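Worked Example 4.2. Consider the chain below.
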Amino acid sequence: MNNPDIRRWVILLAIGLCAYWMVQAWVSYQRAKNPEDYKGTPAPSVETNGGTEDTTVPNDLVNNENGVDTTDEGDVPDASLVAPQKPTGSNTTTDIDRDLIQVTTPLLQIWIDPLGGDLVGAKLPKYPVSLQDPDVPTTLLDKRFGRTYIAQSGLLEPRGQNRLPSRPVFTSVASNYALEEDAVEDTLDVVLNFELDGIQVTKTFVFHKDRYDLQVRYDVQNSSTESYKAGFFAHISRDAGPPDGVKTGFFRPPAYLGGAITLPENRYKRLKFKQLREQDFTVRGIQGGWIAFLQHYFISAWIPPQEGTYVYYAQQRSSGDFWYGFTSAEQTVALGSDGQYQATFYVGPKRQKNLAPLADYLTLTVDYGFFWWLSVPMFAVMEWIQSWAVNWGVSIILLTIIIKTLLFPLSEMSYRSMARMRKLTPQIKRIQEKFGTDRQKMGQEMMALYRKEKANPLSGCFPMLLQMPVFFALYWVLIESVELRQAPLMLWIQDLGAMDPWFILPILNGASMFLMQRLNPPMADPMQQRVMMIMPIMFCVICIFMPAGLVLYWFTNNLYSMAHHYFALKKAGAT
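Applying the procedure from the previous section yields the following structure tokens:
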């Protein structure tokens, strides 16, 4: 490659880097311009809009024999989501002076708002925001100015039965609860109480020492003068803003941010913000199931009892926030009897072993994309390796070797074809020198040579293309698996889910690609030769911004391929 060509490629590379840095600067500007959308706070707070929190109920989602009313909007779904309609909304709570209830377990820090018993804060102590801030846990649920991500649940009365406030203010015997690591008990019950006109409502949260899911149970004791009727609702309310501290770039696609649900005809269906802005989502008569909100590595999900039948809904509210939830069928609590409603709420990492016991197909929220059917067994093998290797980096290396060994026959076909082409290199060079200025004649002579020697320059490509699904499947395993988040390899690589801080792996990967090219036969077209020579540099730059775990796979793959290719050439006498 002559000096003008080198300068041209350096200029193009510099332009690309400048464009990338300009976009990064624009993102930083937007963060500075709207800091309330990005910054975190030590603990959630409660916004009551000057002492008044709107609790009226919309009526725009599901079947109802008495008509539809879409004028009101508040914190609970419309009662038409079960059979009858909602109360009028006269139970708006005003001027509430209340403190949040804090619950601490080895895995969770939770804040509960006495108003409605909503979960308005959740932090994950086992998952710090970064290795540089190990004492700052990742925040999922959050409620503050400019940020809404909360989990709400409650009782939904039919139209005309205005017996209880739609958002009652519960009382609790304590404001702080803790389940210690060394506690004898494995569970912790946080009990909230409310009573009005002979109807006593007890809302109980059951926390577990070693689990991210918690049970939410309503017990209704009817000591009034008539029967009480209500359904149960639960939903996640979320704004459309990105999670705190999330960074994306040109070379690392953003993870999915939005809702998801399982349906009989679609086991994993995304409920995107864009879709809900255009049209609400409602589906009725679903047995069991779940509805969730997803972000990179983490998830929150409502999971009702699987034997029941439910209405699932998702919509954008006039406030701009989004709801993802379900309602149960109504049940009647007769005079002097008790009634119970319950569901499971999960808030934590997208770990398959945590999600699998909760509901069928919930593990699909670990979104491996189109090639999930390859990704799932790959991750299972990688997890098994890690169980005895005790290092996710070693697991990636060994999994790469296993995959390359299984694909050995395909690689062998490719390398045999490349070996035949390499033997023709001297003749190809003579043709290029003889007909260098006549591209048409040079092409004809090349084709004649290939026919004579029974060689096909493309015969090595097809087996390599067959391996691409494996590459993409493993790519999404490494990108999506929370197990690799902040998992160390050794020495300078302490987070396989982040970029290499010293750029050593990307440089080694680029060098291995360059050496691989030296084993391949030269391209017939001089322009193609120049492009191939610049490719290792381009991929080196791309790999700088990729997770270290993915670059480690790529580098291991190159080393294995290079050794296999060398011995294939030696066997064919083409070295």
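The CA atoms of residues 375 and 474 lie 6 Å apart. Residues 1-5, 27-72, 83-97 have pLDDT under 50 and may be disordered. Compare this with Example 4.1 before moving on.
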